[in-house]
Design brief:
Blueprint: H1 8-28, H2 35-42, H3 46-52, H4 56-80, H5 85-101, H6 108-116, H7 121-147, H8 157-178, H9 182-198
Helix pairs in contact: 1-2, 1-4, 4-5, 4-7, 5-9, 6-7, 7-8, 8-9
């Protein structure tokens, strides 16, 4: 188990190491990131690095946890409003906008998963938990709509949340592979159609003229 620092200075050092490792992994990938590279970027000594991380795998697990936390924190405000059609539209628009802004689109959690889950079970579990937390936030919003009787009686918020995350991850992956954020727009619009279809009362469609992505 990773050693947790007792002092504010120790916590800052550990965070600096994790942040440096995350930045390098994002740029170079897991295979292209060495502990020496991390130490150089983090301005940390070898003794400091091994004080908090037994080996490279343990550091990569911390990167996986940090990545999941960062993705969810970035979405936190928008996810909090994922309990109405208006809030859902806003959330989906923000995800699309983020893909447009990034030079390399995609999902950081998904990108790490492709590199880590077959080589380290602990990392797989950390990333799976991150996706579960994401899905839970979606489900909470949909269950709130169901409690207000805004969804049809036969609508299943748990299934809808799972379908939503699947569609979002597919859009994120295609945006990354094709370097084309319009793939995320297609996925987002499909999510919106899916949830609208589950609503008890029909809601007015969005403007038929799509907002330009670039």
């Amino acid at each position: 188990m990773p050693k947790q620092p007792r002092t504010a200075r120790g916590r800052a050092t550990r965070e600096r190491i994790v942040r440096a490792a995350a930045e390098l992994v994002a740029k170079r990938g897991v295979a292209g990131t060495s502990l020496d590279d991390v130490r150089e970027i983090a301005h940390a000594s070898k003794s400091q690095l091994y004080l908090y991380f037994a080996d490279r795998d343990e550091l990569l697990r911390a990167v996986a946890k940090s990545t999941c936390d960062s993705v969810l924190e970035t979405q936190a405000d928008a996810l909090a409003d994922f309990d109405s059609i208006t809030g859902i539209e806003r959330y989906l628009d923000e995800i699309v906008a983020l893909q447009v802004e990034r030079n390399t689109p995609g999902c950081p959690i998904g990108s790490l998963a492709g590199q880590l889950i077959e080589r380290d079970e602990a990392s797989r579990l950390i990333l799976a938990d991150g996706l579960e937390r994401w899905e839970l936030s979606l489900r909470n919003g949909l269950e709130a709509m169901a409690a207000r009787e805004q969804l049809r009686p036969d609508a299943n918020p748990v299934l809808l949340a799972s379908q939503t995350l699947m569609l979002l991850q597919g859009g994120l992956l295609l945006s990354q592979v094709r370097r084309d954020p319009s793939q995320m727009r297609i996925a987002a619009d499909t999510v919106l159609e899916l949830i609208r279809a589950a609503c008890l009362t029909s809601t007015p469609p969005r403007d038929a003229t799509p907002t330009p992505l670039g």
